[in-house]
């Protein structure tokens, strides 16, 4: 993957892999201040890194080269950035990032543990971010046929989870007799119970819920837009942008108040970016086509005014 970044920008790449597989990452960059970090599943910029590109150490045989056997199954994050002084000066870096994951994936894991792929609880419950239905699919793939759409809150038997297409998929079964069995995206499953839940709704893709949302339109010939907003304490506003797999999305939030943050959802409502404070800009490559959602949130105690800037290229 080849791209460029400027100043304080950070470009994030997500890679799904299983424990025991080998990942190699190398960065070729025309600016000596350009580096990458690798973060374990559940971590990202601001957390402790699994490996730091500017330091030679375990799994880092050389600067900007990562090679190691992965300790955990899940989605790893690779961040590409400029070192502090160069970032402050607004320097530009053109780079190529090479990523490889080798080694066989495991079978569906069975068990009774609470972590991501080691079986999980006996029962899951559907918990979509927007309260809409969740598609139960015939296989662990976004492209697999939809068996049925599960209402939010539905309890399911857990038949085991695995990584596929860079995300966690779980084989589940409804509690009805006879029931339906298939695969559901683990992003939208929490621990549930054996209590039968609402009847499934007709099969359809989950949509963005709520009324406080706005579709973003770019002016003809433009690749970006800037919008203003005001949020009372505890409120949020969602912006919907159509984009394609492989394009780059840029989001910048500026405003008053320390409680402003934002998060980004993929078209299938999985997280593209978990919550990030307004001080940090986002720039990353998309891996799904369709409507992406940027949600600006005010977790402060006062009303906050803000400006959000979007770019798609």
What does this structure look like?
This protein is mainly β and 313 residues long. 2% of the residues lie in helices and 50% in strands. The protein has one helix spanning 84-88; strands at 2-6, 10-17, 22-29, 34-39, 51-52, 65-69, 74-82, 92-102, 123-126, 134-137, 146-150, 155-164, 167-174, 181-185, 189-191, 213-215, 224-231, 236-243, 248-255, 260-265, 271-277, 282-285, 290-298, 304-312. It has an eight-stranded mixed beta sheet.
Could you give the order of the helices and strands?
EEEEEEEHEEEEEEEEEEEEEEEEE
* Mean pLDDT over the full residue set: 82
Classify the helix fraction into a percent range: under 10%
How many strands, what sense, and barrel or not for the largest sheet? 8 strands, mixed
Can you tell me the residue ranges where pLDDT is under 50 for at least 5 consecutive residues?
A: 107-116, 198-211
Structural class: mainly beta
Question: Strand order across the biggest sheet?
Answer: 5-4-7-2-22-19-24-17
Number of strands: 24
> Which percent band covers the strand fraction?
over 45%
Question: How many separate helices?
Answer: 1
Taking Cα atoms only, what radius of gyration do you get, to the nearest Å? Answer: 21 Å
How far the N terminus sits from the C terminus, by CA atoms, comes to 15 Å
């Amino acid at each position: 993957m080849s791209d460029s970044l400027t100043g304080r920008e950070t470009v994030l790449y997500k890679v799904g892999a299983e424990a025991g597989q080998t990942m190699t990452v190398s960065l070729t960059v025309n600016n000596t201040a350009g580096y990458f970090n690798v973060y374990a599943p559940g971590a990202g910029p601001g957390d402790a890194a699994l490996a730091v590109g500017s330091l030679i150490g375990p799994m880092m045989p050389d600067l900007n080269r990562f090679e190691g056997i992965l300790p955990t199954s899940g989605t790893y994050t690779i961040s590409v950035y400029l070192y502090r002084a160069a970032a402050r000066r607004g320097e530009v870096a053109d780079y190529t990032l090479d990523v490889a994951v080798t080694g066989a994936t495991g079978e569906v894991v069975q068990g009774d543990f609470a972590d991501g792929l080691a079986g999980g609880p006996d029962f899951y419950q559907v918990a979509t971010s927007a309260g809409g239905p969740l598609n139960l699919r015939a296989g662990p793939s976004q492209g697999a046929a939809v068996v049925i759409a599960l209402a939010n809150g539905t309890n399911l038997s857990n038949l085991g989870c695995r990584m596929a297409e860079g995300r966690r998929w779980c084989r589940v079964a409804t509690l009805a007799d006879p029931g339906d069995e298939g695969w559901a995206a683990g992003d939208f499953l929490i621990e549930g119970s054996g209590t039968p839940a609402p009847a499934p709704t007709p099969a359809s893709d989950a949509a963005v819920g709520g009324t406080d949302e706005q579709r973003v339109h770019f002016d003809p010939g433009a690749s970006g837009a800037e919008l203003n907003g005001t949020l009372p304490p505890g409120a949020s506003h969602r912006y919907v942008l159509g984009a394609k797999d492989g394009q780059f999305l840029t989001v910048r939030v500026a405003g008053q108040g320390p409680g402003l943050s934002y998060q980004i959802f993929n078209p299938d409502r999985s997280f593209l970016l978990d919550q990030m404070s307004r001080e940090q800009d986002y720039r990353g490559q998309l891996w799904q086509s369709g409507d992406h959602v940027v949600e600006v949130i005010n977790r402060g105690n006062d009303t906050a005014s803000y400006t959000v800037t979007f770019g798609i290229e």
